[in-house]
Every structure is written in structure tokens, then in C-alpha cells.
Amino acid sequence: MLESLGVVVLAAGQGTRMKSSIHKVLHPVAGIPMIDHILRAVSALSPDATVVVVGHGADQVQSHLGDSVQYAVQDPPRGTGDAVRSARHLLEGKVDTVLVLLGDSPLVKSETLRRLVEVHRRERPLVTLLTGKTHDPGRILRDELGRVCGIVELKLATPEQLQILERNSGVCAFRAEWLWPRLEALQASAIGEYLLTDLTAQAVAAGEVEGRWPVAALQIEDPHETMGINDRSQLAHAEAVMRREVLHKLMLSGVTVVDPATTYVQAGVEVGPDTTLLPGTHLAGSTSIGSGCTIGPSSYILDSQIGDGCRVQWSVLESSRMEDGSDVGPYSHLRPGSRIGRHVHLGNFVETKNTSIGAGSASGHVSYLGDAEIGENVNIGAGTITANYDGVEKNRTRIGDGAFIGVDTVLRAPVEVGEGGRTGAGAVVTRDVPPGKLVVGVPARVVPQHARRDGKDKEAGS
């Protein structure tokens, strides 16, 4: 029978070196709060229980994570051993193995955690450590047989011990029935804290268990994986590491990244094969991009969905959707709620907001289309404005299929242009345009059917 697993994530530290009112573990790395990275890695192990230990700024962490985890409170902070001890009442008697992680180490991978737990279950020690040439100050002590026999903290290390390259990562697994009583009996260290690392020496002192050495270790190859983040410089370093990993995975999946050094893709963004990301591209949030697209140069896309074969250049998209074969830019802005149909062309300096545009329609240049419903195969002339705000409310503009909106048209909402309707250059449309009719002037009026194209006939009502 597979042993049950409990996870404890330590997030009670004050993080004073971040110089921030935001809790340290909530600072984003690749667009996602660092504690979310850790919990995502943990979730791949399907733990039976996950406890986050909080203290300073607990309300921020709990507000962010909600009821997705359980919480233990450590107040005041008195070291890592005391932090894990605070979770005892939530895990004792419920899990066989306790996996401990640090809340400020967002680069740890689920594959590494899985390997650590597998070693712990297979070798059945009291303690299993994740070690390597990490950035942690704790040095790993080994005996003449190469077995782990202790961990010495930086402040307590001798000059010889400071030369040790193998470090403690802070990630470790324990046999639960052995852990809890040892934590209760743990004494404060020489630096006045209750240190989880002191349990390694206690395990060694207990001697072999079932003929096995009581401490096991899994060494990792990538020292970045368990780096802790304590200040903004380390935060930027972690960001760079994760960005490289995200882009590497995309390139292996068939995405062309022309210049990785100037391409920024947040974790969780999806990009289809044969899509090219040009320099200056920023993809953020819940963005997904189809196959065969060209994104950039210098485009920012947030929480948006883009279909296959699309192009976005020198433009900004926020919470918008583009269907297959459409293109935007340069220098256009799709604000939240924009829905662009198939094979739509939005050229330079076009702004949309809460607007749907049907298949085959086009707005070549310099237009504002807000709170509008635009049908299929509509031509929007340069300088068109949907005047959606009357000073109190936002109003809708509706333009039917096949309509032709002349240059410099102002559509004062609420207003509707019927199917096949047309507006002349400079028209200010304050009333609905009947299907198939042409309106011109200020305010715009319907041109009689017999009106000549040379404009010599008078407008209706003039």
C-alpha cells in the first residue's frame, strides 16, 4: 500500500529584505506568485494534505490561496523546526510521510519532488534531504563512508566547513511517526531558533533503522531549482531562469523564438507549433495562441485567445479574442471584450473596446470602435468613431453585414446602421440608417434613391 503524503510549505517569514508591503511569497515569477509555482509542483504528487504555515502577512496569503490548502499559524517566527511543529495538529495520524518545502523557492520542479519522495519510500530512512550545489548556506556533512551525518548552518560553520560545496536545499522528507515527537523535544540552537536541520543529527544519533542508514539524500544537478528568493535581485534572477525554461519548452514544441533575450512569455501561456515570436513580444496571463501565427515585433498580449494563422505586430491585446486568419497592427489596441472574427483586418492605430467584429470586415486605420457590434464584410473608413459615452452611460452601436462606413464618420450611440447601409465622408450619424440606404451630412440624412453620385442633387429635407 502506498504511503500517504502530507506537504508543509513554510511561508511565515517576514521577508524584510524585499522592502515590500506585499508578502514575499506573493511576488510573481514569470507572472505567477511564487507560492503558486510551489503548490503547482506539489499538486503533481497528489498529496493527501497540504498545509501552508503562515505568520507575518497571513491575511494576504490566505486571501490569495483561499480554501485550496490548510493553514497553520506560526507567531512569532522561531525557526523552521517550530514552523513545521505548528502543522502537527493538522497532519499527525493522517499521513505517513511529511514533505517540507520553503515558500520562497518557486523553481523547484515536480519531477524532483517526486524523485525525492520515491527515494524516501524506497530506502525508508528517517530523513531524506534534497541537496546539491545550491544557494542555501547550510553545508552537508558526510562521514568517511560518504553518508550524510549532519547539516551545519552558515553562522555555526568552521572555515573548513565553509568550503563544502554540497548544500542543504531546505526541501526534505520525514517519517511522520518519528518527526512529531522529535519536534516537540527540539531545543533552540545556538542562534536562538528551532532548526529543522538539527533533526538530521538526531536521526544519525538514533542509528540505523531496519539495517539502513537513517539519513538519505538526493542530489540535484541544477542549483537554481531550489534557490530561495530574499530580495529583488534574487527575484529578477529567478525570473530570468524561469523565462529561459518557458521559452526552451516552447521551442522544443515547435515554436520559433527569434530572440529569446527579448521575448517574455509567462508561465502557463500556450503557443501552437509553427508560430513565430518576434523580438519584443510579451505574452502574459491566460493567453493562448494558435499555430502558424506571427506575433510581434513589440507586441503585448494579456489574457487573450488568438486562433491559427493570425498576425499581431506592434500592438496591445487585453482580454480579447482573435479568430483564425485575422491580423492586427501596427500600433493598434484591442481593449477588454474585443472579439475579432475570421479574416478581419485591423490596421494601424485602431482601438476597439467591448466590440465584436464579424468575419471579413476591415478597419484599415485610425478608428475608435467602442461598445459596437459590427457585422460581416463591413468596411470601416479611416477616422471612424463610435461615440459610445453620453456622459452618463455607455451605449451600443450596431452595424449590419456589408455596410460601408465612410471616412471620418461619427456614429453617436445608441444607433444602428442596417445591412448594406452606407455613410458619406464626415457624416455625423445620430439616427438609425435603414438597410441599403446612404446617409450624408451633419446631422446625417438619407440621400434619395435618385440622387446622383456627383452630389448635385439635394439631400432629403434640405
Radius of gyration: 31 Å
Main sheet characteristics: 17 strands, mixed
CATH superfamily of the largest domain: Spore Coat Polysaccharide Biosynthesis Protein SpsA, Chain A
> Based on DSSP secondary structure assignment, what is the total number of beta strands?
40
Q: How much of the sequence is in beta strands?
A: 25-35%
Q: What does this protein look like?
A:
The protein is α/β, with parallel strands linked by helices and 462 residues long. The protein has 2 domains: 222 residues, Alpha-Beta Complex (Spore Coat Polysaccharide Biosynthesis Protein SpsA, Chain A); 215 residues, UDP N-Acetylglucosamine Acyltransferase, domain 1 (3 Solenoid), CATH 2.160.10.10.
Characteristics:
single chain; 462 residues; alpha/beta; Spore Coat Polysaccharide Biosynthesis Protein SpsA, Chain A; UDP N-Acetylglucosamine Acyltransferase, domain 1; 17-stranded mixed β-sheet
Give a quick summary of the entry:
The chain has 462 residues and is an alpha/beta fold. The protein is 18% helix and 30% strand.
